[in-house]
């Protein structure tokens, strides 16, 4: 994949311009490159300045504003800024008598350039102090010290609030160093970022993870087999807590995306982090998740844990602000609401037929998903397999109760478009499948089922839906071999139809050649029901439907 950056453009400068255009507080300079907060809190006496290579957005320029940074100095992507940029940025905002605190991530280029900038500013008569962040356990033991990563966000958040509370230079430096000392991070990646100009920074094999990865496009010291999210998070949290030791006032926890992880996944990871912390009896004072310090679009995440020595840190962490820094809340205890379980659902007698059906459709999950992927969103096989596995759990003693279990499961437990519609058909068939019922009764049920589907879903034959399999079958007197053959033929016929209902209707002629997955599933379900009721289907072959 390539990126929109052209090699002769400096993405960090263009990005600053974009940020300034979408913010009412950020000012920026293109040469030398830096950005600053135009809305400084009057109580703030110390200028907070930070920076580093670009590619970690929203850090640092996104953290400009009340409660955050005063100056942000980006270098080129993953390259430290030069000291002239840092000096110019600070001079833009420093008023006479101001003091300056530099927050620096531990990378050689950053350390050197911020150190030279500190000397130049001092020579100009400015009081300057530095806080160095070295939190990354993935680089523990390196001769140059641990890398500075996620804890930078925590430190900038806490120092921003403390600076607005009027703290002086020494107090802020002490606070920053104390939080840095008690913070550790670990990051993992399943896939590399995309380099500006295109191409992956590094390759990660299938089923593998880079464990302890950095944020500058370097691989980790260790490549591991993916142990699954549960075990992965457990290992990460355990290593972080082991490194930190006892925390007197609980922990601040930040789950951070590296740029290519969805918010859904980050929230899922957070839930798991909370679980492992609870298992370890490690109290969480606050848990936050989001993308705060990224590595371009790297598909990975980091966890940062701060062991709180002083409750004042928590107050600063939770203080309001006007930036893209985390907006954490105090941790509470959340238990999911459990709906009342319906004890009458299903007969609870296990059904060998439903068990077998659930197994058959579990094996069809991938082929049906593949059909739905070509014409929709790739979940139909999962929906059907889930419905039948839930139906098997409900059980049944005869065809009537088995169909009632299927109907209940599809109506109440399966989403998507197909779940409830199959639920409707099945409940109508179930209604006619009582004692002594034969193929004609089931056929009657199918007819009213199809009517219900057409009433609710509004689909006509020819619209490329399950109706194209169900309606031809329902035209027969009985749910027998001919009816099933008509359903199979109907499903086949959808290959030449464009869709007027459902998601496939967005795809126009691109669906041609592939049968409608709902129609295929409907034909397969009717075949199974007919067989269960004793119909002799001869050598009816349905395998071609899944091609
Ligand atoms: P979703 O499209 O919400 O992901 P599924 O993948 O579970 O739902 O189901 C897709 C199938 O649902 C389609 O293949 C089609 O057969 C059926 N379908 C969609 N809309 C309708 C409708 N209005 N009436 C009848 N069947 C429909
Ligand atoms: Mg679908």
List keywords for this structure.
six-stranded mixed β-sheet, 12 strands, single chain, alpha/beta, 547 residues, DAK2 domain-containing protein, 2 domains, Serine Threonine Protein Phosphatase 5, Tetratricopeptide repeat, binds adenosine-5'-diphosphate, binds magnesium ion, Rossmann fold, 17 helices, DhaL_dom
Strand order of the largest sheet: 1-2-4-3-5-6
Low-confidence stretches: 1-5
Query: How far apart, in Å, are the first and last alpha carbons?
Result: 30 Å
CATH fold assignment of the largest domain: Rossmann fold
CATH superfamily of the largest domain, called what? Dihydroxyacetone kinase, domain 1
Helical stretch count? 17
How would you describe the shape?
elongated
> Strand tally, please?
12
**Helix/strand order, N-terminal first:** HEEEEHEHEHHEEEHEHEEHHHHHHHHHH
Task: Output the radius of gyration.
Answer: 31 Å
Present as ligands are: adenosine-5'-diphosphate, magnesium ion
Q: What integer is the average pLDDT?
A: 93
């Amino acid at each position: 994949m390539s990126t929109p950056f052209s090699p002769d453009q400096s993405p960090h400068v263009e990005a600053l311009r974009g940020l300034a255009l979408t913010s009412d507080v950020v000012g920026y300079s293109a040469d030398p490159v830096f950005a600053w907060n135009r809305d400084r809190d009057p109580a703030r006496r110390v200028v907070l300045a930070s920076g580093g290579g670009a590619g970690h957005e929203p850090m640092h320029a996104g953290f400009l504003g009340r409660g955050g940074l005063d100056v942000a100095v980006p270098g080129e992507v993953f390259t430290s800024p030069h000291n002239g940029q840092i000096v110019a940025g600070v001079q833009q905002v420093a008023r006479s008598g101001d003091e300056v605190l530099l927050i620096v991530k531990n990378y050689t280029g950053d350390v050197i350039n911020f150190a030279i900038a500190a000397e130049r500013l001092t020579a100009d008569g400015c009081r300057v102090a530095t806080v160095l962040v070295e939190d990354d356990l993935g680089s523990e033991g390196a001769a140059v010290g641990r890398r500075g990563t996620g804890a930078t966000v925590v430190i900038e958040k806490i120092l921003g609030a403390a600076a607005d509370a009027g703290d002086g230079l020494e107090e802020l430096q002490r606070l920053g160093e104390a939080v840095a000392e008690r913070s550790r991070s670990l990051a993992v990646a399943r896939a590399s970022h995309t380099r500006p100009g295109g191409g992956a920074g590094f390759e990660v094999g299938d089923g593998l993870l880079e464990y302890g990865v950095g944020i500058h496009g370097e691989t980790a010291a260790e490549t591991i087999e993916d142990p699954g999210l549960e075990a992965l998070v457990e290992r990460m949290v355990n290593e972080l807590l082991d490194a930190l030791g006892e925390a007197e006032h609980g922990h601040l926890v930040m789950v951070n995306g590296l740029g290519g992880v969805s918010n859904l996944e980050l929230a899922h990871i957070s839930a798991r982090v909370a679980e492992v912390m609870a298992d370890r009896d490690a109290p969480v004072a606050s848990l936050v998740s989001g993308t705060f310090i990224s590595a371009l679009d790297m598909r990975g995440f980091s966890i940062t844990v701060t062991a709180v020595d002083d409750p004042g840190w928590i107050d600063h962490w939770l203080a309001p602000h006007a930036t893209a820094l985390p907006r954490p809340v105090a941790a509470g205890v959340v238990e999911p609401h459990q709906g009342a379980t319906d004890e009458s659902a299903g007969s609870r007698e296990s059904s060998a037929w439903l068990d077998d059906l659930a197994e058959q459709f579990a094996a069809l999950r991938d082929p049906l998903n593949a059909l739905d992927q070509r014409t929709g969103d790739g979940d139909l096989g999962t929906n059907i397999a889930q419905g039948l596995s839930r139906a098997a759990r409900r059980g049944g003693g005869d065809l009537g109760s088995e169909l009632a279990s299927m109907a209940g499961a599809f109506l109440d437990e399966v989403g998507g478009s197909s779940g409830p519609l199959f639920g409707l058909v099945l409940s109508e068939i179930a209604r006619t499948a009582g004692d002594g019922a034969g193929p004609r009764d089931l056929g009657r049920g199918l007819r009213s089922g199809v009517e219900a589907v057409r009433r609710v879903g509004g689909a006509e034959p020819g619209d490329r839906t399950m109706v194209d399999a169900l309606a031809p079958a329902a035209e027969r007197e009985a749910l027998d071999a001919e009816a099933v053959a008509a359903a199979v033929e109907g499903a086949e016929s959808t290959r030449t139809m464009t869709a007027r209902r459902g998601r496939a209707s967005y795809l126009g002629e691109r669906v041609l050649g592939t049968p409608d997955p709902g129609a295929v599933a409907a034909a397969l379900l009717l075949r199974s029901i007919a067989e269960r009721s004793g119909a002799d289907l001869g050598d009816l072959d349905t395998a071609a439907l899944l091609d």
